[in-house]
Amino acid sequence: MTLMKWHFGINIYDLLFLATISTGLTFTVLLFFVKRLNQKANRFLGLALLIIVLWMMWVLSIDVHLARYLPRWSWVPLQFSLSIGPLIYFYVRKLLTPERKFKPVDWLHFFPLLIEQGVLIVEILESRKTGHSTYDTRAFIQLNPIIQALALLSVLTYLFLSLRLRRRFRQKLSDQLSDVARYQYSWLQRLLMGFSILWLFWAAFTTVDLAYYQYGLGIESYYPLYLLLATMIVWLGVEAFLRPEFVLIELSLLKPPVEPGPPSPDLLRSTDWLEGQMQQNLFYLNAGLTLRGLAEELDLHPNELSRIINCGTGKNFNDYINTYRVEDVKRKITDPAYDHITLLGIAFDCGFNSKTTFNRTFKALVGQSPAEYKTRPKTATIL
Protein backbone atom coordinates (compact mmCIF):
# COMPACT_ATOMS: atom_id res chain seq x y z
CA MET A 1 0.00 0.00 0.00
CA THR A 2 1.49 3.33 -1.07
CA LEU A 3 0.89 6.57 0.73
CA MET A 4 -0.11 9.60 -1.26
CA LYS A 5 2.37 12.43 -0.87
CA TRP A 6 0.91 15.72 0.18
CA HIS A 7 1.74 18.48 -2.24
CA PHE A 8 0.05 21.86 -2.18
CA GLY A 9 0.36 24.56 -4.82
CA ILE A 10 0.63 27.89 -2.98
CA ASN A 11 0.01 31.16 -4.83
CA ILE A 12 0.04 34.80 -3.71
CA TYR A 13 -3.65 34.69 -2.74
CA ASP A 14 -3.04 31.67 -0.54
CA LEU A 15 -0.22 33.47 1.26
CA LEU A 16 -2.47 36.48 1.82
CA PHE A 17 -5.24 34.20 3.08
CA LEU A 18 -2.80 32.60 5.52
CA ALA A 19 -1.73 36.06 6.75
CA THR A 20 -5.32 37.19 7.33
CA ILE A 21 -6.21 33.90 9.02
CA SER A 22 -3.25 34.20 11.39
CA THR A 23 -3.97 37.86 12.17
CA GLY A 24 -7.68 37.21 12.52
CA LEU A 25 -7.17 34.35 14.96
CA THR A 26 -4.85 36.51 17.06
CA PHE A 27 -7.37 39.32 17.42
CA THR A 28 -10.19 36.83 17.96
CA VAL A 29 -8.37 35.55 21.04
CA LEU A 30 -7.54 39.09 22.23
CA LEU A 31 -11.08 40.38 21.78
CA PHE A 32 -12.62 37.36 23.46
CA PHE A 33 -10.35 36.84 26.46
CA VAL A 34 -8.54 40.09 27.33
CA LYS A 35 -10.43 41.83 30.13
CA ARG A 36 -11.44 45.35 29.12
CA LEU A 37 -14.35 47.69 29.77
CA ASN A 38 -15.86 46.70 26.42
CA GLN A 39 -15.16 42.98 26.77
CA LYS A 40 -18.81 41.93 26.41
CA ALA A 41 -19.12 43.97 23.22
CA ASN A 42 -15.74 42.78 21.97
CA ARG A 43 -16.83 39.16 22.25
CA PHE A 44 -19.53 39.73 19.64
CA LEU A 45 -16.90 41.25 17.37
CA GLY A 46 -14.52 38.40 18.17
CA LEU A 47 -17.14 35.88 17.05
CA ALA A 48 -17.72 37.84 13.83
CA LEU A 49 -13.98 37.86 13.21
CA LEU A 50 -13.78 34.11 13.89
CA ILE A 51 -16.53 33.45 11.34
CA ILE A 52 -14.64 35.44 8.72
CA VAL A 53 -11.48 33.47 9.58
CA LEU A 54 -13.33 30.15 9.17
CA TRP A 55 -14.68 31.40 5.85
CA MET A 56 -11.12 32.24 4.73
CA MET A 57 -10.01 28.74 5.80
CA TRP A 58 -12.78 27.25 3.65
CA VAL A 59 -11.68 29.29 0.64
CA LEU A 60 -8.01 28.44 1.21
CA SER A 61 -8.81 24.71 1.51
CA ILE A 62 -10.56 24.77 -1.85
CA ASP A 63 -7.73 26.66 -3.52
CA VAL A 64 -5.03 24.24 -2.34
CA HIS A 65 -7.20 21.24 -3.37
CA LEU A 66 -7.36 19.76 0.11
CA ALA A 67 -10.06 17.35 -1.10
CA ARG A 68 -7.38 15.30 -2.88
CA TYR A 69 -6.00 14.24 0.50
CA LEU A 70 -8.98 14.66 2.85
CA PRO A 71 -12.07 13.92 0.73
CA ARG A 72 -14.48 14.60 3.58
CA TRP A 73 -12.99 17.83 4.94
CA SER A 74 -15.76 19.77 3.18
CA TRP A 75 -18.24 18.21 5.61
CA VAL A 76 -16.78 20.34 8.39
CA PRO A 77 -19.06 23.37 9.02
CA LEU A 78 -16.92 26.41 8.24
CA GLN A 79 -19.52 28.80 6.79
CA PHE A 80 -21.77 30.84 9.07
CA SER A 81 -22.27 33.87 6.84
CA LEU A 82 -25.85 34.48 7.99
CA SER A 83 -24.60 35.31 11.48
CA ILE A 84 -22.11 38.02 10.46
CA GLY A 85 -24.71 40.77 10.26
CA PRO A 86 -26.34 40.07 13.65
CA LEU A 87 -22.94 39.80 15.38
CA ILE A 88 -21.79 43.17 14.00
CA TYR A 89 -25.10 44.70 15.06
CA PHE A 90 -24.95 43.31 18.60
CA TYR A 91 -21.33 44.46 18.86
CA VAL A 92 -22.32 48.03 17.98
CA ARG A 93 -25.37 47.88 20.26
CA LYS A 94 -23.38 46.63 23.24
CA LEU A 95 -20.59 49.12 22.57
CA LEU A 96 -22.89 52.15 22.40
CA THR A 97 -25.54 51.02 24.89
CA PRO A 98 -23.71 48.78 27.38
CA GLU A 99 -26.69 48.77 29.74
CA ARG A 100 -28.74 46.68 27.26
CA LYS A 101 -28.55 42.97 27.92
CA PHE A 102 -28.70 40.12 25.44
CA LYS A 103 -32.14 38.58 25.93
CA PRO A 104 -33.48 35.18 24.86
CA VAL A 105 -35.58 36.82 22.16
CA ASP A 106 -32.37 38.13 20.58
CA TRP A 107 -31.49 34.58 19.58
CA LEU A 108 -34.16 34.90 16.87
CA HIS A 109 -31.70 37.06 14.91
CA PHE A 110 -29.61 33.94 14.42
CA PHE A 111 -32.46 31.71 13.23
CA PRO A 112 -31.42 32.05 9.53
CA LEU A 113 -28.14 30.41 10.51
CA LEU A 114 -30.09 27.16 10.99
CA ILE A 115 -31.18 27.36 7.36
CA GLU A 116 -27.56 27.70 6.25
CA GLN A 117 -26.53 24.66 8.28
CA GLY A 118 -29.55 22.75 6.97
CA VAL A 119 -28.32 23.37 3.43
CA LEU A 120 -24.91 22.01 4.44
CA ILE A 121 -26.56 18.82 5.69
CA VAL A 122 -28.28 18.40 2.31
CA GLU A 123 -24.92 18.89 0.58
CA ILE A 124 -23.24 16.34 2.87
CA LEU A 125 -25.93 13.73 2.13
CA GLU A 126 -25.39 14.21 -1.60
CA SER A 127 -21.62 14.17 -1.10
CA ARG A 128 -21.88 10.75 0.58
CA LYS A 129 -23.75 9.37 -2.41
CA THR A 130 -21.60 10.85 -5.16
CA GLY A 131 -18.20 10.97 -3.50
CA HIS A 132 -17.77 14.61 -4.51
CA SER A 133 -16.91 17.46 -2.18
CA THR A 134 -19.91 19.39 -0.89
CA TYR A 135 -19.01 22.42 -3.03
CA ASP A 136 -19.11 20.20 -6.15
CA THR A 137 -22.61 18.85 -5.48
CA ARG A 138 -25.73 19.86 -7.33
CA ALA A 139 -27.26 21.04 -4.05
CA PHE A 140 -24.40 23.49 -3.56
CA ILE A 141 -24.65 24.79 -7.13
CA GLN A 142 -28.39 25.34 -6.77
CA LEU A 143 -28.64 26.53 -3.18
CA ASN A 144 -25.41 28.43 -2.56
CA PRO A 145 -26.47 31.47 -4.69
CA ILE A 146 -29.60 31.72 -2.52
CA ILE A 147 -27.59 31.51 0.71
CA GLN A 148 -25.15 34.11 -0.61
CA ALA A 149 -27.99 36.46 -1.55
CA LEU A 150 -29.56 36.03 1.90
CA ALA A 151 -26.19 36.70 3.54
CA LEU A 152 -25.71 39.90 1.54
CA LEU A 153 -29.21 41.08 2.41
CA SER A 154 -28.68 40.18 6.07
CA VAL A 155 -25.36 42.01 6.41
CA LEU A 156 -26.61 45.15 4.65
CA THR A 157 -29.75 45.22 6.79
CA TYR A 158 -27.83 44.90 10.04
CA LEU A 159 -25.25 47.46 8.93
CA PHE A 160 -28.12 49.90 8.34
CA LEU A 161 -29.44 49.17 11.84
CA SER A 162 -25.93 49.64 13.27
CA LEU A 163 -25.51 53.02 11.57
CA ARG A 164 -28.90 54.08 12.92
CA LEU A 165 -27.78 53.11 16.44
CA ARG A 166 -24.69 55.26 16.03
CA ARG A 167 -26.74 58.28 14.94
CA ARG A 168 -28.90 57.93 18.05
CA PHE A 169 -25.78 57.58 20.16
CA ARG A 170 -24.41 60.84 18.73
CA GLN A 171 -27.62 62.63 19.64
CA LYS A 172 -27.41 61.21 23.15
CA LEU A 173 -23.89 62.56 23.47
CA SER A 174 -25.00 66.02 22.39
CA ASP A 175 -27.60 65.97 25.15
CA GLN A 176 -25.07 65.06 27.84
CA LEU A 177 -21.56 66.22 26.91
CA SER A 178 -20.12 69.61 26.05
CA ASP A 179 -17.25 68.22 23.98
CA VAL A 180 -18.89 65.70 21.66
CA ALA A 181 -15.98 65.41 19.23
CA ARG A 182 -13.87 63.31 21.62
CA TYR A 183 -16.69 60.81 22.13
CA GLN A 184 -18.21 60.36 18.68
CA TYR A 185 -16.69 57.01 17.68
CA SER A 186 -15.94 58.46 14.24
CA TRP A 187 -13.76 55.43 13.55
CA LEU A 188 -16.81 53.21 14.00
CA GLN A 189 -18.77 55.33 11.53
CA ARG A 190 -15.98 55.06 8.95
CA LEU A 191 -15.65 51.32 9.35
CA LEU A 192 -19.37 50.65 9.16
CA MET A 193 -19.61 52.79 6.04
CA GLY A 194 -16.60 51.03 4.52
CA PHE A 195 -18.09 47.67 5.41
CA SER A 196 -21.38 48.71 3.78
CA ILE A 197 -19.63 49.82 0.57
CA LEU A 198 -17.75 46.52 0.40
CA TRP A 199 -20.94 44.47 0.71
CA LEU A 200 -22.76 46.64 -1.82
CA PHE A 201 -19.90 46.05 -4.25
CA TRP A 202 -20.06 42.32 -3.46
CA ALA A 203 -23.80 42.34 -4.15
CA ALA A 204 -23.24 44.08 -7.50
CA PHE A 205 -20.50 41.60 -8.44
CA THR A 206 -22.70 38.63 -7.52
CA THR A 207 -25.59 40.07 -9.53
CA VAL A 208 -23.37 40.32 -12.61
CA ASP A 209 -22.16 36.75 -12.02
CA LEU A 210 -25.71 35.43 -11.83
CA ALA A 211 -27.16 37.53 -14.65
CA TYR A 212 -24.44 37.14 -17.25
CA TYR A 213 -22.43 34.07 -16.26
CA GLN A 214 -25.11 31.95 -14.54
CA TYR A 215 -22.90 31.83 -11.45
CA GLY A 216 -20.04 30.41 -13.50
CA LEU A 217 -17.19 32.77 -12.68
CA GLY A 218 -15.82 30.41 -10.04
CA ILE A 219 -14.68 31.02 -6.51
CA GLU A 220 -11.30 32.37 -7.63
CA SER A 221 -13.05 35.41 -9.12
CA TYR A 222 -14.19 36.33 -5.60
CA TYR A 223 -10.71 36.15 -4.06
CA PRO A 224 -10.15 39.95 -4.05
CA LEU A 225 -13.50 40.40 -2.32
CA TYR A 226 -12.64 37.79 0.29
CA LEU A 227 -9.35 39.55 0.99
CA LEU A 228 -11.06 42.94 1.27
CA LEU A 229 -13.59 41.42 3.65
CA ALA A 230 -10.85 39.88 5.78
CA THR A 231 -8.91 43.15 5.81
CA MET A 232 -11.99 45.11 6.83
CA ILE A 233 -12.91 42.82 9.71
CA VAL A 234 -9.30 42.68 10.96
CA TRP A 235 -9.16 46.48 10.77
CA LEU A 236 -12.33 46.63 12.83
CA GLY A 237 -10.79 44.25 15.36
CA VAL A 238 -7.61 46.33 15.61
CA GLU A 239 -9.58 49.56 16.07
CA ALA A 240 -11.87 48.00 18.67
CA PHE A 241 -9.02 46.52 20.69
CA LEU A 242 -6.58 49.43 20.59
CA ARG A 243 -8.96 52.37 20.96
CA PRO A 244 -9.29 53.94 24.45
CA GLU A 245 -12.44 53.04 26.40
CA PHE A 246 -13.21 56.17 28.39
CA VAL A 247 -16.61 56.99 26.89
CA LEU A 248 -18.76 54.24 28.31
CA ILE A 249 -17.88 55.03 31.93
CA GLU A 250 -19.34 58.49 31.54
CA LEU A 251 -22.44 57.38 29.68
CA SER A 252 -23.20 54.51 32.03
CA LEU A 253 -23.65 57.01 34.87
CA LEU A 254 -26.21 59.08 33.03
CA LYS A 255 -29.93 58.62 32.79
CA PRO A 256 -31.72 59.63 29.60
CA PRO A 257 -33.13 63.17 29.78
CA VAL A 258 -36.84 63.72 30.13
CA GLU A 259 -38.64 64.38 26.87
CA PRO A 260 -39.09 68.15 26.31
CA GLY A 261 -42.49 69.63 27.04
CA PRO A 262 -44.05 73.06 26.47
CA PRO A 263 -42.22 75.84 28.40
CA SER A 264 -44.00 77.06 31.50
CA PRO A 265 -43.43 80.33 33.43
CA ASP A 266 -41.51 78.35 36.06
CA LEU A 267 -39.36 76.80 33.36
CA LEU A 268 -38.62 80.17 31.79
CA ARG A 269 -37.61 81.53 35.19
CA SER A 270 -35.37 78.52 35.63
CA THR A 271 -33.82 79.21 32.24
CA ASP A 272 -33.07 82.82 33.25
CA TRP A 273 -31.60 81.58 36.54
CA LEU A 274 -29.41 79.07 34.66
CA GLU A 275 -28.16 81.79 32.33
CA GLY A 276 -27.21 83.91 35.32
CA GLN A 277 -25.32 81.01 36.86
CA MET A 278 -23.44 80.38 33.62
CA GLN A 279 -22.40 84.02 33.29
CA GLN A 280 -21.44 84.33 36.94
CA ASN A 281 -19.53 81.04 37.39
CA LEU A 282 -18.23 80.52 33.83
CA PHE A 283 -18.82 76.76 33.94
CA TYR A 284 -18.31 76.55 30.18
CA LEU A 285 -14.58 77.17 30.59
CA ASN A 286 -14.27 73.54 31.71
CA ALA A 287 -13.42 71.68 28.49
CA GLY A 288 -14.60 68.36 29.98
CA LEU A 289 -17.93 69.69 31.26
CA THR A 290 -20.76 67.15 31.27
CA LEU A 291 -24.46 67.33 31.99
CA ARG A 292 -23.98 65.41 35.23
CA GLY A 293 -21.02 67.58 36.27
CA LEU A 294 -22.93 70.81 35.70
CA ALA A 295 -25.99 69.40 37.47
CA GLU A 296 -23.87 68.63 40.53
CA GLU A 297 -22.46 72.17 40.50
CA LEU A 298 -26.00 73.60 40.39
CA ASP A 299 -27.45 71.07 42.86
CA LEU A 300 -29.94 69.79 40.27
CA HIS A 301 -30.86 66.35 38.98
CA PRO A 302 -29.38 65.78 35.49
CA ASN A 303 -32.85 65.14 34.10
CA GLU A 304 -34.12 68.46 35.44
CA LEU A 305 -31.15 70.35 34.06
CA SER A 306 -31.62 68.64 30.70
CA ARG A 307 -35.29 69.67 30.68
CA ILE A 308 -34.42 73.28 31.45
CA ILE A 309 -31.88 73.42 28.62
CA ASN A 310 -33.91 71.52 26.03
CA CYS A 311 -37.28 73.15 26.69
CA GLY A 312 -36.10 76.58 27.82
CA THR A 313 -33.54 77.21 25.09
CA GLY A 314 -34.44 74.72 22.35
CA LYS A 315 -30.85 73.47 22.33
CA ASN A 316 -29.11 70.31 23.41
CA PHE A 317 -26.45 70.44 26.10
CA ASN A 318 -23.53 70.49 23.66
CA ASP A 319 -24.91 73.42 21.62
CA TYR A 320 -25.93 75.29 24.77
CA ILE A 321 -22.45 75.19 26.31
CA ASN A 322 -20.69 75.93 23.03
CA THR A 323 -22.84 79.03 22.55
CA TYR A 324 -21.25 80.54 25.68
CA ARG A 325 -17.81 79.50 24.52
CA VAL A 326 -18.26 81.08 21.11
CA GLU A 327 -19.60 84.32 22.62
CA ASP A 328 -16.58 84.46 24.92
CA VAL A 329 -14.27 83.91 21.93
CA LYS A 330 -15.99 86.70 20.01
CA ARG A 331 -15.58 89.07 22.94
CA LYS A 332 -11.89 88.31 23.37
CA ILE A 333 -11.18 88.52 19.64
CA THR A 334 -12.39 92.12 19.62
CA ASP A 335 -10.60 93.02 22.85
CA PRO A 336 -7.12 94.56 22.20
CA ALA A 337 -5.94 93.07 25.49
CA TYR A 338 -5.95 89.64 23.80
CA ASP A 339 -4.15 90.65 20.59
CA HIS A 340 -1.00 88.87 21.76
CA ILE A 341 -2.83 85.53 21.98
CA THR A 342 -3.50 83.37 18.93
CA LEU A 343 -7.03 82.42 17.92
CA LEU A 344 -6.39 78.85 19.03
CA GLY A 345 -5.05 80.08 22.38
CA ILE A 346 -8.21 82.13 22.89
CA ALA A 347 -10.31 79.10 21.96
CA PHE A 348 -8.56 76.97 24.56
CA ASP A 349 -9.03 79.72 27.17
CA CYS A 350 -12.75 79.67 26.43
CA GLY A 351 -13.28 75.93 26.95
CA PHE A 352 -12.50 74.38 23.58
CA ASN A 353 -9.79 71.74 23.47
CA SER A 354 -9.71 70.90 19.77
CA LYS A 355 -8.90 73.16 16.82
CA THR A 356 -11.22 71.22 14.54
CA THR A 357 -14.13 71.38 16.97
CA PHE A 358 -13.53 75.08 17.59
CA ASN A 359 -13.47 76.03 13.89
CA ARG A 360 -16.50 73.90 13.04
CA THR A 361 -18.56 75.12 16.00
CA PHE A 362 -17.65 78.78 15.52
CA LYS A 363 -18.59 78.75 11.83
CA ALA A 364 -21.84 76.89 12.52
CA LEU A 365 -22.95 79.47 15.11
CA VAL A 366 -21.50 82.67 13.61
CA GLY A 367 -21.56 81.94 9.89
CA GLN A 368 -17.89 82.84 9.52
CA SER A 369 -14.61 81.20 10.39
CA PRO A 370 -12.76 82.65 13.41
CA ALA A 371 -10.16 84.23 11.11
CA GLU A 372 -12.86 85.79 8.92
CA TYR A 373 -14.66 87.14 11.97
CA LYS A 374 -11.47 88.69 13.35
CA THR A 375 -10.62 90.47 10.09
CA ARG A 376 -14.15 91.56 9.23
CA PRO A 377 -14.82 95.30 8.72
CA LYS A 378 -15.46 96.92 12.09
CA THR A 379 -18.59 98.64 10.72
CA ALA A 380 -20.14 95.20 10.32
CA THR A 381 -20.24 94.58 14.04
CA ILE A 382 -23.34 96.71 14.55
CA LEU A 383 -26.45 95.30 12.90
From the spread of the alpha carbons, the general shape counts as elongated
CATH class of the largest domain: Mainly Alpha
Helix % is 55-70%
Relative strand content: under 5%
Low-confidence stretches: 246-261, 379-383
Rg, nearest Å: 28 Å
Give a structural overview.
With 383 residues, this protein is mostly helical. The chain folds into 2 domains: 12-252, Rhopdopsin 7-helix transmembrane proteins (Up-down Bundle); 266-381, Homeodomain-like (Arc Repressor Mutant, subunit A, Orthogonal Bundle). The protein has 15 helices and no strands. Helix 5 packs antiparallel against helix 6. The N and C termini lie far apart (100 Å). 29% of the residues are buried.
Please summarize what this structure is.
The protein has 383 residues and is an all-alpha fold. It has helices at 12-33, 39-63, 84-96, 111-130, 138-176, 186-213, 223-242, 247-252, 265-281, 291-298, 302-313, 317-333, 343-349, 355-366, 370-374. Helices cover 66% and strands 0% of the residues.
